[in-house]
Fold these 2 entries.
Entry 1:
Amino acid sequence: MFNKTKTTLLALVALLSMTTSFAMGHQNHSADHKSTGVVIHDPWVRSAPPNAPALGAFMQVHNNTNQDIKLISAHTSGYKDIQLHRTVDDNGMMRMVQQKFMPIPTNGKLHLKPGSWHIMLINPVKVPREGEIVMINLQFDNGTSQTVSFKVRKGKMMMKHHAH
Amino acid sequence: MSNMYKSIIGVVVVLITTLVFMGGPDKDYKDLKRQLKSSLITYDPDKELISFSLIDHDNNKFNNNRLKDKWTLLMFIYTHCPDVCPTELLNMSLLRSTLSNDKSKVVPEVVSITFDPVRDTPKVLKTYTAYFDKSFIGVSGDQNQIDKLVKTFGAYYERVIKNEKGQDVILQAGESLPEGAIEEGYIINHTAQIYLVSPNGQIFAEFPAPHNISNMADDINLIIENY
């Protein structure tokens, strides 16, 4: 005979142990940084010539909060300036439009990638090489910020379909 | 009529007939156009490429003769570009690798002409383009010459500087840079077509962005085989 209370308790214990083991098993991947629901995936800087005056930094921003948020600024050292940009294909004209912010909808994500949204690193003191790390502090309009390690690596082939 | 005259007329007739049957620039490439996946044939026999004289990254003259007797993939770039230009240079490097894998295929030379010679001197271009592929040729020179070439190819660019209030101001080609603009820095908005120049030194086709390497390689092979 099934005892309802026992079943419920059993279910709760099972759920609890699942959650606990999940939390324990879920190690921070080197590229993931949790901070009050805003998760950065795959942060990278595209490697560039040793005299490159500008570099692009890319990443995926996952907004796991229940609010729309905005990335409002980025800070780093070793560069004259760091700005938020978006490449827009305006009927064959490639425009690089500086952005005051980058919007990430609630429970959504924003993909910074070549040909699209990106962080522009201007006038490096020394162009970082493949494998090196660039630390960038990201500030969001929900009052949170996080410092993320962007790894320098070679860019990939441009995607077949256009960036949205 | 003397025998000598007859021989001369005979030779001339043979020559003309041969030239006509060789086809060459009078073909309209209808079949070829149908097969192309990512390019447009823009060759116009009535529109010869203008005469130009620029400088390459080794400080050698780069003029129309440098485009003859080989196929060339030509593009316009600027080194202060963080996104589009590095992507295109990487793409061209990958394209050359793809084409080089088949020893029977022609690998065009890749030439990058700067929109921005005031900052992109031959020395700057040498370091910059060599990073993507040691065979790449960077070209700088007189801004007016470059602007004429940009127009001829159907490309376009504009500089975006900031005024005292920090607002964007667009400068067209030919408009002079205000004092302090180079120190302040500026972005260039530009078209990103890549052009294929024939061994006659004439614009033959163009590849609009975004560039798919595999399709570009196929089109280049087809074009060269049918030229």
Note: Chain B touches chain A through 35 residues (CB under 8 Å).
Entry 2:
Amino acid sequence: MNFTWSDAAYFGPEAVMGLTFLLCVLGDLVTRGRRHVVPFGTLLVGTAISLVLALLHPPVSSHAILGQMVVVDGFAHFFRLLFLGITFVTALLSWSSREIMGRDREHQGEFYALAAMLCFGMMVMAESADIVMLALSLEAVSITSYILAGFARFSFRSSEAALKYVLWGAVSSAVMLYGLSLFYGLTGATSYEGIRAGLSGGQGGMALLVAILFVMAGIGYKISAVPFHFWTPDVYEGAPAPVAAIFASGPKIAGFALMIRFFYVALVQDDSQGTLALLDDVQWPWVLAIISAATMTLGNMAAIRQNSVRRLLAYSSIAHVGYMLMGFVVLSANGLAAVLFYLFVYAIMTIGAFLVVVALNNRVSGEEIDDYAGLGFREPLVAAMMFLFLISLTGLPPTAGFIGKFYLFAAAGEAGLWWLAILGVLNSVVSLYYYMRIARAMYFTPPELSGRVGLAQAHLILLVVLAVPTLVLGVFWSPLKEFADQSLRMLLGGG
Amino acid sequence: MISTVIWCLFAGMTVMAALAVATSKNVVHCGFGLLFSLLGVCAMYVFLGADFLAATQVIVYVGGILVLILFGVMMTHRITATDLKSELVQPVAALIAAVAILVLSVGMILEQVWPAKEHLDPITPTTHAFGVSFLTDYLFPFEFASVLLLVALIGAAMFTRDSAGEDSDHV
């Protein structure tokens, strides 16, 4: 057993977020739920402290801590910063959201406690180095998500969304746990390293295939890849809009982080020449390449038919998972760096697009595309931002989305998966059509009402804050790319 | 030999009871089916020498969750009169998925050579080892699980509260 106080130094940001969760709960109790500013402030301060701690002490090498349960390395650091950023932004955007706070701000401050817990869980997900921690952290994020999905308790749709989410989640985590137990049965180890060591002795075969498929079912549900995506549109539509913004970014990205670490530590061997070799006869990249192709195509095809902006964004987020899986299957450091880059960019532009939905939700009654008619005349700034996010989601220059997609397609092409890269480009063209339907409604349809919509100041500021990196990363992307490359070095180099 | 027969009896009980849960349209029957299924699993744990797991299975699932379910059924007005919805949705896709899972699982069981022990040791208490590893190697997962349970509690309290803001007055 090696459990020392020095572990705490590496685990600082996570510990602070865990503590923030408890303090939020406590703050809400002490003020008897009447002063929402207490949990809100606690969350903001906690996230800020955690962010400062993470930035002050970036890990310089890979540290397996807390009894080898979690690993803090550059990879974990990358996602840590991303999750903290997401939590900070979503906390700010939900403060002025009517759906979260209620018309008379009567809703509970529990939202902020749950947001802290979600962040804590996601950070641990990205750091898990043991299937025990994998299952626990995934479950923590899932359970928090179920509660958040049903947060608007008196809304029928919110409750329905929560129930659907729970049922799907319960089934897929059960399947995943079965898969994980097979890994243990095959290798007698629970740590990723131990599983890799056990499998390299030639324990493969049918059971390994089943184990990988079943674990993929659990992770596929978390990142909403086809065919485990059915819950996504309903949950995004039913859950309060700020929660949908979190779901589309946070847990999905955490799912990717968990998947990358699990597959690339437990099931891949590094021949220390920059290329990665598969363990024995496990051809999981083929399974994933097919899932990737199906995910982006089905997501885009379904998005075309949608009239609700939120469902459209939900299906488009499924399509984006397909693009990102492309970088995951190519078994190269370049491919993974492209995924990390895209995850970062994806978080910014998706939260941006959902933020527009949140901001308008307070004022405009519906969420159909037609309800956005004439927005370009009524709220030029908001419409321009939305347009920017949509362009970035499509992947057109000069936005960050273009650079991200470029790296992904390049990585796929480099690995000889040309069919997948071409399919990705074709899908991007299709996505242009439905994204531009929103743009057309905003700019080419005359508004039914005139005058300004009148949006919360906080939302406008946040929109600008998110729009700036979307543009800047489109022309000046090398720092982020280098950061992504560097983050992966410890994961892949250190084995 | 005799232990194999007993094992098979318990396995059969588990599977049959689980089938009853899945097919029955009466909530009460489902509940009792679940009882036998869970008890069958418990018996298997005993056979495998997992004494702590077996006890936990009885205490948590049979004694706790199942009793709660049955109480819930009893206290809900006329719940036995409502027909459970069990209709076929997308039979083709479901059939393909089910057959695929069946083929994979059966193939796996028949084909795979598992690195298993030849002989099980006579049952020795595992609780001591559990306690030690919970507070040493597995301390972090243990604590993390407790935070996880706290979240679940908060969620349950939130969903079942009458209406927001009122109940904080009558503490």
Note: DSSP finds 21 helices and four strands in chain A.
